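Re: folding output
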Amino acid sequence: MNFGVTVDFEKADPTGRYVRGWASVVSKGGVPVEDHQGDIIEMDELRKAAHQFIVDARVAKAMHDGGQVGQVVESVIIDDAFAKATGMSDDRRGWWVGMEITDPAVQEKVRKGTFRAFSIGGRGRRKKV
């Protein structure tokens, strides 16, 4: 099964060179969040996928296509233990990333608001809950 998640940038600098925000939110207020296909990603599965992405790829692509347009420069799994340790008040849990955008055409699209969100995709196996 293929899946996709899109989450708006929390912050994009005025140059369009750096964007930050949630790559994936798996729960809010302790309630699981469904993705666009109605699936729920468990924290342990997200953690494994995020770690594998950082080790194997770390690259940003424009709409999952073509060559590299940037790279991940920040990656944090925000689970209950992290939130408690940092005194975080946000009740979302998931994967927070920061990306440096190196492609001038993509930077322009970020500046203009054409690109306003992260989109992650992957493969998984569905199981009944």
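--- second protein (sequence, then structure) ---
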Amino acid sequence: MSKTFRLQIITPERVFLEDDAEMLVVRAPDGEIGVEAGHAPMGIATEECAIRIKRNGEWREAAASDGFVTVTPDQVLMMVQTCEWPEEIDANLARRNEERAREIMRQRRSMQEYIMAKSMMARAMVRLRVSTRTHKN
């Protein structure tokens, strides 16, 4: 059995990654899920998170929005709104977005604004976390 699978991560703007991988770790609503070659077929919703990708024995982390992952034994397709490598993230912009989201949440204008601000804050926090660290296993 192959120790790698084909990983595709697609956003509306670009093909973020298309390569062979040894493992993918994402966060679903009920916890983290790790996928390796030969994994049972499944479809899962993902949350805003720092995804971890192992390729050629090296781990790399990226900030991803919520989305959907389909898994087959030899292929994984991840569809998200955004996905960024640490070097693509503007940490200052992420900090400003986090502060703006916190202010909107404090004002409590409407439930819709609160939910949108909560999502905005989660994205900013993930982007900051990914931009300031590297993950090695």
